[in-house]
Design brief:
single chain; 476 residues; alpha+beta; 7-stranded antiparallel β-sheet; 31% helix; binds iron/sulfur cluster
Length: 476
C-alpha cells in the first residue's frame, strides 16, 4: 500500500558459537523494518568473511545449510528497505564487508545521511571507487582513508563528517562497535544472552532469542563490545537536543517493542485516547485499520466507552506479486490485503482509526469498501498529525507534491476520501501522548517542516578530531 515505508533493521551478535543463527532469528523479528533484502556477515578469528545475502524475506533466503556454513562467534545482519540506492542491486544488500589497513570489517546501517551526496563527490574526487549506490558505503571509505591509528579514533573522526541518521553496527575480527547518531533518529538497543552481547534495532529481536534487554544505546554513543562480553562506552559528541523519529512509535516499530524509553503498545493506546478526547463524534462502534491502527483504536474505544469491533480483516499471506483477472476489479490491491466484516459495520455509525494518511488513495478504497459493507456513517480518525513534508532521515516518503495534506485542507481531504467526518491528531496531542518529559526529544519534521538541522550545525561546531577531545567519555 502506498505510504511511508519502513527503513531497515540491524542486528549484531558478539560471542556466541551460533552467532549466524541468532542473527537470523533477530532479523526474522525485525522483518517489518525491511523486506527488500537481507544479509548476514561474520568474521572468523583469521579475519575471513563468511556470509550470505538474499533478496526478499529472511525466512525465504536462508536455509539451515546456508546458516551452518556462516562460521564465527560474532556477526552482524541487516534487513533492507532501500531509502537510498537502487533496490534491485545485489551490491546494495548489507552488511557490506571491506578490508582496511586495520583489518577486515563489515558494516550494517539503519538511517540516511543527509550530506551523502557531498561526501560521495568529495571522496570520488579523491579517488575512491564506490561499489554500490548506498550511502552506507561512505562510512567504509571514510574509515579506510582516515590516518588515525586506532579504529575508535577513526570512528570518532567519521562521526564528525557524516550528518543525518545512523544507527549502525561495525564488526571486526575481535570486536564490534555499535553507534547511534547524536540526534538518535533511529532506535538501537543492547541486550545480553549470558556472556553474549546482542545489539538490535528493536527489543522484539532480543526477546525472540531470549536476550535480556539491558538498555538503549544513547544518541551520540559509541559502544565497543568485546568477545568476552565486556563493553566500553564513549560519547564523542553531545547533541544540544535529541530527535527521535516520532514515526517510529506511531507506525514503524512493532507494538511489542520498547524503544525511545516507550512501550509502543501503550503509547499507541495513549495516542488513541488523546485522539478521542480531541475529536470524538457520536458513533456506535470503533474499528481499526490493521495493524498499527489496532492499539490506537483500542485506546480510542476505551476512552469513549464504545465497543471495538473487528471491522477489517487483514490477509497476512499476500506476496509481492499477484495476478489480476484481465477484467479489472475495483480496489483490487487493497481488497487483497483487507476485507470488511459486514456484521461489524451494517447500519452502524463507525469510527475508523488508522495511524496516518499519506497519499490518501488507500483510505479512499478502504472507505468505499466499508460503505459497501453497510456502514451508515464513517468517521475517519488518524493517530498522527497531517503529513505535510518529506523525510530526510531514512524514511521513504513520497515527494511533497504527493502528500495529500500538503496539498489540501482537512475538509478537502474528507471529501476526497469519502468520510462523513475526518480528524487528525494534533501536533500538541502527539506531544501530549509522548509525555511532557519526552516530547522535546522527538523529530516532528514531516508534520511541521521543522527539521533538526540547526542542531546539526551545533554538532558541527563541537566536533573534535581526537579521542582526548572535549566530550569524550569512557565508561563502564
Ligand atoms: Fe521521522 Fe518524520 Fe522526522 Fe523523518 S521527518 S525522522 S519520518 S519524524
Amino acid at each position: 500500500m502506498p505510504g511511508f515505508r519502513e527503513e531497515c533493521g540491524v542486528v549484531g551478535v558478539v560471542g556466541d558459537p551460533e552467532a549466524a543463527k541468532l542473527i537470523y532469528l533477530g532479523l526474522y523479528a525485525l522483518q517489518h523494518r525491511g523486506q527488500e533484502a537481507a544479509g548476514i556477515v561474520t568474521i572468523n578469528e583469521e579475519g575471513e568473511f563468511h556470509g550470505h545475502k538474499t533478496f526478499g524475506l529472511v525466512g525465504d533466503g536462508f536455509t539451515q545449510g546456508i546458516l551452518s556454513e556462516i562460521e564465527g562467534r560474532s556477526g552482524i545482519g541487516h534487513n533492507r528497505y532501500s531509502t537510498t540506492g537502487a533496490s534491485r542491486m545485489i551490491q546494495n544488500i548489507q552488511p557490506f564487508s571491506f578490508k582496511t589497513p586495520l583489518g577486515a570489517m563489515a558494516i550494517a546501517h539503519n538511517g540516511n545521511l543527509t550530506n551523502a551526496d557531498v561526501l560521495r563527490r568529495k571522496l570520488e574526487e579523491q579517488g575512491s571507487i564506490f561499489q554500490s549506490t548506498s550511502d552506507t558505503e561512505i562510512f567504509m571509505h571514510l574509515l579506510a582513508k582516515s590516518s588515525k591509528e586506532q579504529l575508535l579514533e577513526r570512528i570518532v573522526e567519521v562521526m564528525a563528517q557524516v550528518k543525518g541518521a545512523y544507527s549502525l553496527v561495525l564488526l571486526t575480527k575481535d570486536r564490534m562497535f555499535a553507534l547511534r547518531d547524536p540526534f538518535g533518529f533511529r532506535p538501537l538497543v543492547l541486550g545480553r544472552r549470558g556472556s553474549c552481547v546482542v545489539v538490535a534495532s528493536e527489543t522484539c529481536a532480543l526477546e525472540l532469542i531470549d536476550a535480556e534487554f539491558e538498555r538503549e544505546i544513547a544518541p551520540g554513543e559509541i559502544v565497543e563490545i568485546f568477545q568476552d562480553g565486556f563493553i566500553r562506552s564513549y560519547f564523542p559528541y553531545q547533541s544540544p537536543r535529541k530527535a527521535f523519529c516520532s514515526f517510529e512509535p506511531i507506525y514503524f516499530a512493532r507494538p511489542d517493542s520498547k524503544i525511545f524509553g516507550e512501550e509502543i503498545y501503550n503509547l499507541r493506546k495513549k495516542i488513541g485516547a488523546t485522539l478521542a478526547r480531541e475529536s470524538h463524534v457520536e458513533a456506535d462502534v470503533v474499528i481499526a485499520v490493521p495493524d498499527s491502527g489496532v492499539p490506537m483504536a483500542l485506546g480510542y474505544a476505551a476512552a469513549v466507552g464504545l465497543p471495538m469491533e473487528l471491522g477489517l480483516v487483514r490477509n497476512h499471506y499476500v506476496g509481492r506479486t499477484f495476478i489480476e483477472p484481465s477484467q479489472s476489479i475495483r480496489d483490487f490491491g487493497v481488497k487483497l490485503k483487507l476485507n470488511p466484516v459486514g456484521s461489524s459495520l451494517r447500519d452502524k455509525r463507525v469510527v475508523v482509526v488508522d495511524d496516518s494518511l499519506v497519499r490518501g488513495t488507500t483510505s479512499v478504497k478502504i472507505l468505499r469498501m466499508l460503505r459497501k459493507a453497510g456502514a451508515k456513517e464513517i468517521h475517519m480518525r488518524l493517530g498522527s498529525p497531517p503529513i505535510t513534508h518529506s523525510c530526510y532521515f531514512g524514511v521513504d516518503t513520497p515527494e511533497r507534491g504527493q502528500l495529500l495534506a500538503a496539498q489540501q485542507t482537512v475538509e478537502e481531504i474528507r471529501d476526497f476520501i469519502g468520510a462523513d467526518t475526518l480528524a487528525f491528531l494534533s501536533l500538541n496531542g502527539l506531544r501530549e501522548a509522548l509525555g511532557k518529559e519526552n516530547c522535546n526529544n522527538y523529530c516532528y519534521g514531516c508534520f511541521s517542516g521543522d527539521y533538526p538541522e540547526d542542531t546539526g550545525r551545533a554538532i558541527e561546531a563541537q566536533r573534535t578530531d581526537t579521542l582526548g577531545g572535549p566530550g569524550l567519555r569512557a565508561g563502564f
